[in-house]
Amino acid sequence: MVSKITSKGQITLPAKMRAELDLTPGDKVEFIRLDDGSYKLFVKKLNVESIFNLLTPKRSLTLDEIEENIAKGARQ
């Protein structure tokens, strides 16, 4: 696949590539230079669901555990 650089330095990724990478407006891509001088493209998708999953605890704490953690924090 080939893409042309505009006078502003912008590149439009071909539709087939966007579809294969499941890219949608607002997604980011990162270009990393490899040791051999070539570049690799990484897709950076960050959406509400992925952020929520990062913040979701593995399990709920009991009231006793919460109070114990508060007490530990107060002692430090």
Describe the structure.
By secondary structure, this protein is an alpha+beta fold. It has one domain. It has 3 helices and 2 strands. The protein has a two-stranded antiparallel sheet. Strand 1 (28-33) and strand 2 form a beta hairpin. The longest helix has 13 residues, at 63-75. The termini are far apart. 0% of the residues are buried.
Q: How do you describe this structure in short?
A:
This protein is α+β, with helices and mostly antiparallel strands and 76 residues long. It has three helices and two strands; from the N terminus they run H-E-E-H-H.
Q: Which sheet architecture does the biggest sheet show?
A: 2 strands, antiparallel
The ordered string of helix (H) and strand (E) elements is HEEHH
Helical segment count: 3
- Counting DSSP E segments of at least 2 residues, the number of strands comes to 2
The order of strands across the largest sheet is: 1-2
Domain module count: 1
**What would you call the shape?**
elongated
How large is the radius of gyration? Answer: 22 Å
Spatial separation of the terminal alpha carbons: 58 Å
Helix content: 25-40%
The low-pLDDT segments are none
Give descriptors for this structure:
single chain; 76 residues; alpha+beta; 3 helices; 36% helix; elongated
Break the fold down into its secondary structure elements and pairings.
Layout: H1 15-20, E1 28-33, E2 39-44, H2 48-55, H3 63-75
Antiparallel strand pairs: 1-2
